Give the backbone structure.
Amino acid sequence: MSENRDTRLRFEQWAKNPLCMANAVSAVHNVRMSEVAKREGVPPTFGQSPFAIARGQTFERALFRDQAKSLVAALIKSDVLPPDRSGFQDFRLRQHGGPHRNLDDALAATVEFFRQVAKARTKRELEHLPAVLAGPVVRIPGGLMLPEAILVIDVLVVQVVDQRPLLMVGEIKTYPDRAGYTDTGELATARAQAGVYVHGIRVVLGELRLTERVSVSSTGFLVLTRPGFNQPSIRAGESLEYQARRAERGFEKLRVVAADLGGSTDPEVVIPKIRSSPTSYCEGCLSFCDRAPTCHAKALKDGDATVLGDDVSHFLGAVSLHRAVDLMDGAKPANDAEKDLVMRIEDLRHEAAE
């Protein structure tokens, strides 16, 4: 079976802008935005860098080498794991350094592991559960992605809380952890993706009827690199409940999108649908979507303040960019929203003058 059945990248694409219907159609029906951009005369500019892919694979292999020794040590140091927890189970494919031949084998092994976790009752059984899981594979029911929704999770930690197993999602990224200076957009994207996995695992456990014995934590962790080193830096205590709830609402929309067009993945059928679907341009689109130039131009024409960044859009609120310029040039406010904006602009002018 082809590894291309893994729909993780498509879920990540959707999570980067879940409000954009065109983005959802592209991800669900498996037609890349680069193909749509070509039809619109926009040269594709995004793609996976071979260097970035190789770096990510090297970092991940190093994390899981020697029974994930370096990762376990980092997780204990950051209090994700207690000092007495140990054990490692690998669900990765052989081509990524794991034991499994294909996704079907890894999927079956993951399901069997979840069932074994649910059977653990005694203190001894719980203590013998492996602490770290590499690359567990889940199939999310309900027709979210076409032809099927399969997710390979970076890493799961098995904790024991109140004599019950608790699964915690971890997301591995190769960019450096710069503490308070780490790119906020990158972190927000990582949290959104982790929230998708939290809800996805909950759905799978529900289908397996294991939720009475196994829970998924609403807190997760990010595995970044230490600046200048290929060693793990753990950002623990990442709250993912909001992202998981957003994913839950989003999954319902994805099911509707998947049912459209008769479930077709034919580009000749899907591309017109993408082009006619509503878009929701945001600052993050510039970092992943090949149609971003088209949507940026439309947003600029419409006076959407997002073209100047999400912060400016939040500041202007319901006032368009064109109207904001008029107000700054002395136009009289027409409603309370415009009056409030003028007052805030004047406050900023006074602060700048001091």
User: Anything to note?
Assistant: The first helix runs from residue 8 to 16.
